[in-house]
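Lecture notes, continued. The same structure-token format from the folding unit now serves as the input rather than the output. Read the line below as a description of shape only.
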């Protein structure tokens, strides 16, 4: 699958001017620079999700079968966006970026091996992380990992089909 025609994208419009103006909100800084000033792009390394959380439309729209791009292909696209368009901040749009721990670690290692000076964020599940993964992601430039616990109530999580135990939540947070 070829990369999108990024020459048609106005990357300067993807900076977040609203948050920049809200000076009372704490904002992350990278090398002393507000992250909202970086050119940003969303990128997908996979599509689909094997889970059946009752509140989520991902499995309905993208299927429960996960389709992966190779780590090399993902980082090739990142490199193109950095080189040709000055993108420095990436938002991985994958439903669960670390669903395959080895593959995600390989993406992080590939970013580091190429010397890409980027920052990124991703979404995952708290039970799809481990210390080695967290270390690799941080070293590669990950600033934010989003994960949803959805509820502190085991009964509510069961009702939502969120297959996540209190034990896994505690383990992931600690």
């Amino acid at each position: 699958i070829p990369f999108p025609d990024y020459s048609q994208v106005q990357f300067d419009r993807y900076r977040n001017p609203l948050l920049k103006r809200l000076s009372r909100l704490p904002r992350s800084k990278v090398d002393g620079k507000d992250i909202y000033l970086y050119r940003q792009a969303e990128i997908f390394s996979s599509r689909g999700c094997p889970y059946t959380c009752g509140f989520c439309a991902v499995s309905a729209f993208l299927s429960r079968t996960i389709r992966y791009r190779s780590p090399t292909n993902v980082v090739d696209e990142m490199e193109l966006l950095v080189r040709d368009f000055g993108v420095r901040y990436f938002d991985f749009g994958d439903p669960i970026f670390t669903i395959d721990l080895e593959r995600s670690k390989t993406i992080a290692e590939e970013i580091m091996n190429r010397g890409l000076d980027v920052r990124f964020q991703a979404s995952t599940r708290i039970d799809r992380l481990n210390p080695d993964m967290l270390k690799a992601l941080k070293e590669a430039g990950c600033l934010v990992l989003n994960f949803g616990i959805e509820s502190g109530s085991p009964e509510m999580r069961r009702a939502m089909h969120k297959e996540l135990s209190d034990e896994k939540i505690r383990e992931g947070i600690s």
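Point for the exam: The chain has seven helices and eight strands.
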